[in-house]
Recover the amino acids of this structure.
């Protein structure tokens, strides 16, 4: 059986009808997407510094092959997937765990709002699949079909994750809100 | 949209607005610096790379999760996304047009040969090393050697890993092969990511082919082809393997070989040989209990048992009278004790207690191997249903 192959990571999809390569400046691309991607990864990992590292690394990898990536239909999808893959790769976490002690990051940010704290606490209680689906849908504004493609699962599976994730999130938020 | 959806959208919108102001981008300049450093390191130290990638695993709750989901394969998207606003490049002279790919886990053959990488376990009790230096070509007698190195982003994180095919030769002629994947840690050291496959008990590994989607295709055979009279009957298959998030598993291709008609499935086991104290003539004596089973479906007209115990061990004792013929073959490669048995019908088991003696106090090898071959009436070798269990590794001491 011939299995279909997804497009190669470091090769561009077929160029558009006109055969033109869009001129996208890396700096502008970085500035346009870094914050939004970091917020998504922050919601998933629960750690802003960690999220910034993941997204910065994804942009480093994008820069190394920018001439190819810039020709993709959606270069930010490539960066987003690499960042999420880095966040979910257990092996990468393990092999970089030793660096934890070397890393003492101080997070100098304004005092968080109660709503933000509550949402992050509720997200942390979700299983990873459900949390990814909820974050990608509600924070990255990705349609179910796109989430399914990124996660490599059927759309029905994503719907199920979303349904269960949203229900659990609502419950956690309600319970927290009801606490004195 | 339900009320819950609207509520969540509002909560996430507020979250986004608040968190966006907290983010402090290191900036595209830092990206260039990191990539330039990596390029410099890669240039000066071969493929070695100091990955400035820092992940704090304990701070975020994702690190505490039991998420074992494999990362999805990166793929380009067709999602219509507004293109970023074009702007003049701030530093056109630092264009990435000539920047090489991040080396990461791409380890050259030369670096692997120099690195003494830790190898995943070999199959069974094969006396193969799990560390030490790899030879660049097959050793004459014993040792590990690098057969091939390919590259693929097996865990789909944007950086390639090294897929190595490594052979182990022992008892002068027996070969086992494994496919293992290596990467680099944050300090540039080679780390072992995992094992994809060993040639036993499958039979044989011919070659590795990494795919652009990060999967690893391996051509396997149901037996060793070289020197095997039944080599014409070797069944070859391509099987596909992928990273699940914590190990490699088969994702495509056949999971077994087709059943063969008219063949027998011989299986052999043997107990360790424990030699007694040195006798007056300097020899030491011991025995092994060998069990041979024909799991069918065909009968075996003859079975040749070969015990590989080293050059200075001979056969002795009455146990060998169960053999039609018995011989000590110190000059064969590998040296062996041979026992030709008569017919073993399908479903039957033969047990032999075979005495052995070493000519000196020292043994030339501590790892021993038993091997059985089915012979036809003309005593020509016949292929087996499953070659892997035609051999058994045991010890002598």
């Amino acid at each position: 059986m011939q299995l279909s192959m997804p497009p190669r990571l470091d090769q561009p999809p077929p160029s558009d009808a006109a055969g033109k390569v869009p001129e996208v400046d890396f700096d502008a691309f970085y500035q346009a997407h870094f914050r939004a991607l970091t917020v998504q990864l922050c919601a998933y990992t629960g750690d802003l510094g960690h999220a910034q590292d993941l997204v910065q690394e994804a942009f480093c990898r994008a820069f190394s092959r920018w001439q190819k990536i810039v020709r993709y239909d959606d270069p930010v999808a490539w960066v987003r997937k690499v960042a999420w893959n880095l966040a979910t790769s257990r092996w990468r976490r393990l092999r970089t765990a030793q660096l934890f002690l070397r890393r003492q990051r101080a997070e100098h940010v304004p005092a968080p709002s109660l709503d933000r704290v509550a949402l992050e606490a509720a997200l942390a209680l979700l299983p990873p699949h459900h949390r990814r689906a909820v974050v990608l849908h509600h924070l990255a504004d990705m349609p179910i079909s796109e989430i399914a493609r990124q996660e490599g699962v059927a759309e029905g599976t994503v719907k199920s994750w979303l349904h269960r994730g949203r229900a659990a999130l609502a419950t956690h938020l309600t319970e927290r809100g009801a606490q004195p | 949209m339900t009320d819950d959806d609207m509520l969540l959208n509002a909560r996430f919108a507020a979250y986004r607005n608040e968190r966006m102001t907290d983010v402090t981008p290191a900036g595209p300049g830092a990206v260039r610096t990191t990539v330039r450093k990596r390029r410099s390191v890669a240039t000066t130290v071969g493929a070695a790379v100091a990955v400035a990638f820092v992940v704090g695993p304990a701070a975020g709750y994702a690190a505490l999760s039991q998420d074992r989901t494999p990362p999805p394969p990166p793929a380009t998207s067709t999602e219509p996304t507004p293109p970023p606003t074009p702007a003049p490049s701030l530093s056109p002279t630092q264009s990435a047009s000539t920047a090489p790919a991040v080396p990461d886990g791409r380890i050259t053959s030369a670096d692997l040969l120099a690195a003494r990488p830790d190898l995943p376990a070999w199959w069974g009790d094969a006396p193969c090393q799990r560390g030490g230096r790899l030879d660049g070509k097959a050793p004459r007698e014993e040792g590990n050697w690098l057969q091939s190195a390919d590259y693929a982003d097996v865990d789909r994180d944007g950086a390639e890993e090294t897929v190595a095919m490594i052979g182990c030769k022992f008892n002068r002629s027996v070969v086992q092969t494994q496919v293992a994947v290596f990467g680099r840690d944050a300090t540039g050291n080679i780390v072992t990511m995992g094992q994809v496959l060993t040639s036993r008990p499958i039979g044989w590994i011919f070659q590795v082919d990494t795919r652009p989607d990060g999967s690893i295709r391996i051509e396997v055979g149901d037996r060793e082809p070289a020197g095997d009279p039944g080599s014409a009957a070797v069944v070859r298959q391509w099987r596909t393997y992928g990273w699940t998030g914590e190990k490699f598993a088969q994702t495509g291709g056949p999971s077994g070989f087709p059943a063969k008609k008219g063949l027998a499935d011989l299986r052999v086991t043997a107990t360790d040989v424990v030699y007694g104290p040195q006798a007056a003539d300097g020899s030491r004596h011991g025995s092994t209990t060998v069990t041979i089973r024909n799991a069918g479906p065909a009968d075996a007209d003859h079975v040749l048992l070969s015990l590989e115990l080293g050059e200075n061990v001979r056969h002795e004792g009455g146990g060998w009278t169960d053999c039609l013929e018995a011989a000590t073959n110190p000059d064969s490669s590998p040296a062996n004790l041979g026992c030709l048995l008569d017919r073993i019908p399908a479903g039957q088991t033969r047990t032999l207690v075979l005495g052995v003696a070493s000519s000196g106090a020292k043994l030339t090898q501590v790892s021993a191997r038993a091997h059985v071959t089915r012979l036809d009436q003309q005593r020509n070798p016949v292929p087996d249903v499953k070659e892997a269990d035609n051999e058994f590794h045991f010890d002598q001491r």
In short: The two ends of chain A are 60 Å apart (CA to CA). Residues 46 and 120 of chain A are 7 Å apart (CA to CA).
